[in-house]
Amino acid sequence: MLHHLNPPQREAIHYLDGPLLVLAGAGSGKTRVITQKIAYLVNKAGYQASQIAAITFTNKAAREMQERVSPLLEGKSGKGLTVTTFHSLGLQMLRQEAALLGYKPQFSILDASDSFKILSDVLATTDKQLLRKTQWQISSWKNALLSPDQAKATADEELSHAAARVYQLYQQTLRAYQAVDFDDLIKIPVELFDQHAETLDKWQRKLQYLLIDEYQDTNACQYKLIKQLTGIRGQFTAVGDDDQAIYGWRGADVENLNQLTKDFSKLKVIKLEQNYRSTVRILRAANQVIANNPKLFEKKLWSELGTGELLHVTATHSEEHEAETVVMKLQAHKFEHRTTYKDYAILYRSNHQARIIEQYLRNQKIPYTISGGQSFFDKAEIKDIISYLRLVMNEDDDPAFIRAATTPKKGIGNTTLERLGEYASAHKLSLFAAAFEGGFQQEVGNKQLDDLLTFCRFIQTLQGRAVKDPANEVLNDLLNAIHYESYLYDGEEARSAETRWGNVQEFVSWLSKKGEASTEFGHESDGKNLIELTQLVSLITMLEGREDGEPDAVKLSTLHAAKGLEYGHVFLIGCEEGILPHTNSIDSDQIEEERRLMYVGITRAQKSLNITWCKKRKRAGEMQACEPSRFIAELPKDDVKHFGNPFNGPDQVLSKDYGKSKMANIKAMLAGKQQMQGG
Ligand code: ATP
Ligand code: MG
Hints:
Oligomer: single chain
Structural class: alpha/beta
Bound molecules: adenosine-5'-triphosphate, magnesium ion
Strand order of the largest sheet: 13-14-12-15-16-11-19
Number of strands: 19
Helix content: 40-55%
């Protein structure tokens, strides 16, 4: 079983004498240590799968890990094994302990735009910048485990004083809605464990061994959860790489690596140095770029996978030209090397960069999947349907109530809703409950009341069905009852209505597939009912968007979402000052985190790496000249070949090769076509 492991990996897997930290660079087999260690714990060390929890950073990583572990569990069922994200684990705890906390198990999980709206109400403003700042501030406080009162005490300026007051009102609103936000999913369990020793004890006995991947990106709140769960036994393995810490903006703190050493005096540290992912050139590039950051821990990384191809850095004229170049190079490379689409990834700093690449891929009929965006769940039609589901689960969810009651329009007008809102807040009721109050009913006309009550009763009918009928049946009946399809066709031109209706159908089938069986919640591997599915959807919405199931497709992803993954051939686009490193980071002196992002990007590649940048880019409606990213200059010169003729880039990027390579590409493409036709 322990084939394909080097001695330090083996040592890490066998080590059970206490807390263990595996600290190593990219591609050195840290995640492999986790999957193999789970198998070792179950097959050799006498643990039950249900006593083990492995925590990763994204749903996708959790899925991959589960897939890798299952075949290793020698015939024994891995039943009850928890492979999950921090947020899913928190959700699982919250749901089980809801009663203790005064929540109903069907509490809602609000997405960022819901909390944005609540903040906008609380602050009585539409100033987006102020709202975003407040939202970020509240999130930081939560991740640092500060209550509104504590936040007030630490606030040192007028603005954060105001924000602390808003934080308090915001929390009260969430409470009233029986809702939690993203940060609460971890913060509330931590508080619960602080206050209820017997509950903590129960969870400690349940989860006897913890394994944590991507440890460098845990924030204070997540770290505390680990500490609570592992208790004095400290039976855990954390793996991480300080050079890949890229969630500082979300409150993650690399200091947590140091903190481990302080909190666990018996902490054992194992380092891995062999990289099994990338060619020597790619690895050298990564090492050389990251060497410009001050070091936290000394690490070496070497590879036996051969020198490999030169890295390509291409200067392009515009975003369009960049997209065209990338797609053309990708096709030529695929023809030449007889690879498949899924061997390729196109990575970028920010979501918006994907749009134009998507367009060119579509033009060329190249299949692709996109992750890290929230495009699918953010679509109006999907949010409409989710609002019904949320309301069915939790009638106190006022944001969902308003959206569902008014989409499609069903005779419930704004005046009625305003009256309802006033009555509800005066009597501290949810909108739903207020609709049934005599006091309110006297205030509105018969017709208005009828429409409102018809809607509420409709929701009640669905509530009854949600707990017993299959999810897709309930959903389809819901869609029929609200005439959602004709609503789309009435409001839009046929083609866009068709697309939207297609999305809704896809959502229904996606949900019902999820309802059949899943591993996302560890031991709840049986089919999920609509209640669980709705919470699952909220979680995915916030974490990373939906994963498409296209089997052979080019992967489009943000650098953040590509963490931990690997691809044969990587295109890293938009390597310009202002994009990577991002403007905000340049302004706020966060270059080191941007450099770590670059490091993450480079180290995703196994065999080839293509870096592109634009000499001009449209910003605020105007074409503006761009500078190549400073990280390009940090690449080892001997490992890089430059393409393009930058009229405003630094000398080192000048090259006459662009035309030549274009010809070579076309030749390669033709050769590939002949092969295809011949074969
Ligand atoms: P990252 O820092 O990017 O998360 P990682 O340290 O988690 O990387 P893995 O993803 O576990 O690295 O491993 C990188 C690649 O090397 C994987 O394809 C893995 O299967 C392979 N690998 C790991 N260890 C070995 C080994 N001992 N022998 C052969 N291949 C290995
Ligand atoms: Mg990993």
